[in-house]
Amino acid sequence: MENIYLQCDDLTIKKNNRIFLNSFDFKLKKGRSVCILGESGCGKSLLLKEFCKKRKCITINGKFESYFLDKSKDTDWKKELNYNENKKYQKLLKSLFKNEKKIDYKIALMKKVLTKPEFMIIDDLSSILTSDEQGKLFSFLKKLDITIIYATNKIEDTLNFEYTMVIKNQMVAIEGSTLAVMKEEKLMKLLGYSIPFYINLSLQLKLYGILNHICLTKEELEKCIWHLK
Amino acid sequence: MALKMSKLLKKNKISVVVNFPGDLSNMKNSETSGYILKKNNNNDFNCLEYFKTLDVSLAKIKKVLKLVQLDEKILEEKVEFLTTVEWQKMQLCYLLLLKTQIIIIDRFFESLIYSEQQYFWRLLRNLVEKQDKSIIVLEDDMNFVSEITKDFILFTEGENFRFVDNFYDDSLYKYVKMPWTVELVKYLEKCGHQIDHEITFSETLKAVYRGGK
Question: pTM to 2 decimals?
Fold first, then answer.
């Protein structure tokens, strides 16, 4: 039982007479990063809310906070910080985020991160951060040893996490280490997903016989095809 | 922005528009043109009430709900409880029942998973081919755009836009993110390999195979 950070057994999620999840079992170890993948409306956000009730955590809801901050354009977050804080945030922001788009939100997000929470629940940041920015943010959170649960409907996002659970038709259709899940190409297709670009390309090139393992980047792919024949 | 929209329109075709800067949230639907938008500021009503202004039977509403892959139970839901995608599908239902000729869709596909994207793209093409509709798809995900079209309209500075039919033009990527396929081919070329300039996944796969064989 040691190291179990969050646990649910036989959880059912309902809202307004609609059942979203049935008999859901979940165990999360400390320091783990888990991605919950599911189409829009499958109950991911409701599940995250349920997790929040079970364990004290920092929550970030990308869609909601983006909407909220967009509406309050007058809010100058920089003015709220003192000089030292400002310097610290600016440095971190520059290293994590390439552009100044949605900078208010990014500062607000970093303010939450820098409280060094043990556990964060994050709901879909895709409307705020580019995929590169998300990658940098999640590897930064990993270095801080923060336990994370992230929900998304974008399959490429799963690659930022060690473990992936795919929700379909009120249940977990497949779960496991992210790479193992992505290698289940046929099942993922049946569930409605095309697998991430480089994994998909590697699997197809393996079938063609010019590659013998999965590459996750363009650099790796070039090296494997042209230099390691 | 209304004037701009007419310039983007190709009659009885789907126009794909990338990096659109305008705010469409106050646009009103009519039989001529209708909008499928992301945010809904006025949502204190249930889904059945949403169709109240249209003179159509419940059976017709249910038929169109099925077409956009929504369960008819959604009619009992309050609009405020719908997800973005459910709300967008509801708006599409409304426009189909209203028989709107021009449909403008604001970033609908980015919230869908792959199989839904395929389904709705086919549905839009059907509407264009069989019901003579004209559709403007506003979309920023270049990976999706590169799979569905060989040309698109790109907004650059403010309300300036241009027609694009070369995904390998570097100047585009000041405004939008490069699709995976283009990024890979450009990288392989930089490494000294000769790879054909393809855009879709399946064609790029073949090009990489030919180049690496």
Answer: 0.86
Mind listing the pLDDT tens digit for each residue in A56-87? 777 777 766 554 444 444 445 555 556 666 77
Cβ distance B50 to B185 under 8 Å? Answer: no
Contact B158, B122 (CB under 8 A): no
Say which CATH superfamily domain B2-140 falls into: P-loop containing nucleotide triphosphate hydrolases (3.40.50.300)
Question: Is the separation of the CB atoms in A196 and A155 below 8 Å?
Answer: yes
| Contact in structure between B14 and B137 (CB atoms under 8 Å) | yes
- Rounded CA separation A148/A137 (Å): 12
Q: What does each C-alpha distance from B117 to B15, B37, B103, B109, B150 come to in angstroms?
A: 16, 17, 17, 6, 17
Q: What's the rounded Cα separation, in Å, for the pair A159 and A178? A: 7
* Cβ-contact A40, A153 below 8 angstroms: yes
Determine the length of chain B. Answer: 213
In tens, the pLDDT along A17-38 reads 788 999 999 989 888 999 999 9
The Cα of A85 is separated from the nearest Cα of chain B by a number of Å equal to 32
The shortest CB-CB distance from B212 to any of A16, A39, A226 is to A226
Distance from A80 to chain B by nearest Cα, in Å? Answer: 29
Q: Say which CATH superfamily domain A4-67+117-192 falls into.
A: P-loop containing nucleotide triphosphate hydrolases (3.40.50.300)
Q: Look at A198 and B115 and tell me if their CB atoms are within 8 Å.
A: no
Boundaries of CATH 3.40.50.300 in chain A? Answer: 4-67+117-192
Q: By CB neighbour count within 10 A (0-12 exposed, 13-18 middle, 19+ buried), where does B90 fall?
A: buried
Closest alpha carbon within chain B to A207: B209
3-state class of A41 per DSSP? Answer: coil
3-class SS of residue B193: coil
| Predicted local distance difference test score (pLDDT) of residue A41 | 85
